[in-house]
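Methods: holo model generation. Sequences were used as deposited, without trimming of termini or removal of tags, and paired with ligand SMILES retrieved from the corresponding compound records. Each pair was processed once, and we did not select among multiple samples. The sequence and fe (ii) ion SMILES for this entry were:
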Amino acid sequence: MRISRRSLLWGGSSLVTVMTVGRLTDSERVLAQTNVVNVYSSRHYDSDKELFRRFTQATGIRVNVLEGPDDQLIERIRSEGNNSPADILFTVDAGRLWRAQEAGLFQPVNSPILTRSIPSAVREPGNHWFGFTRRARVIMYHKDRVKPNEISTYEELADPKWRGQILVRSSRHVYNQSLVGALIRHIGQARTEKWAQGVVQNLARPPQGGDTDQIRAVAAGAGNLAVSNTYYLARLLKSPKPEDREAAQKIGIIFPNQNSWGTHVNVSGAGLVKTAPNQRNAQRFLEFLASREAQEALAKGNNEYPVVAGVPIDSVVASFGTFKSDPINASVFGRNNALALKITDRAGWA
Ligand SMILES: [Fe+2]
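and the model returned the structure below.
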């Protein structure tokens, strides 16, 4: 496959180059060896590119972005081996960051800036990767048909009183695997397995689509409860399409487990690739992502939460309210991933 490349022009000068997954040509390999940082990213927000431009302006380091789906980027770095131009892998979900770490793709970064500004719960204990945004996985409900005090925990999703009323995407998706990984940690394997069976019994339909589809289905009356990350609801609330906004306005949010272990929170995050040709630039790039300026832009770009304390959040996201998040280290989701898959498979969660 030939690479398709486009340069984004900012104020007349090309500072951020975006490529899509393909094979690097010789000239691109040369480009990758000048004063640059090469970022393999599954985030594809214009706000990220604007942010990277500001990094270039501040440091003189050019940012080359290779975009692609998460698992493809991981596979690509693996197959490129020692010749990989990748300096940074930026992806979503601690489960995936863990997979990349397990594949030996990352090296630890010892940076006082990163360890000081990023809370320990959202960075890998050995500093192999760092969370830069937080995403809360919550219960959503139809405001006309459910009262917010009728359910307050993930555990209650398995209660028979919700028979035929729950919408959730496939357990093959890493977001659910990480949630199940958190449950394993908090309530143990046996209870999690029972829980997964109960959730399957309560499904309104076989899992299909992504989180947005579950929200839409609840709004349309296919069920009363959905499991989703909050940013999908924020996206619908801000949609240019009136029908999206109308659907979203029917939906309320419950931050689960406020009286126990807290709401499950995952990350989007990045690490320094083991074979990075531009290590120093890459470390500066990671440190930049922890700055207040970058934190605000990264979180707002996808209606998520910043990881650094005191950084302002988007007004629609703020309207969801504040909540207590699960304090366990995000690497637990990765460590429990294989067991989570086994449990959901056995429970028949498609
Ligand atoms: Fe997502």
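The radius of gyration is 21 Å.
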